[in-house]
Amino acid sequence: MTILKITEQLDSIFSLSGFSAIALTGGGGKTSLLYSLGHYFAKREKVLLTTTTKLYPPQSGECACTIVASAEECAKKAAAMPSPSLSLAARRAEDGKLLGFSVAEADSLFENGCCGKFIVEADGTRGLSFKCYEGWEPPVPQSTACQIVILGADAAISPVSTETVFRMDMLKTRYGIQKGETISAANMGAILSNRAEYLKNSPKEAFRILFINKGELLEEEQRRLLLNSLWTNIKDYDGAAIGSMREDTVYDYITKERG
Question: pTM here?
Answer without folding.
Answer: 0.97
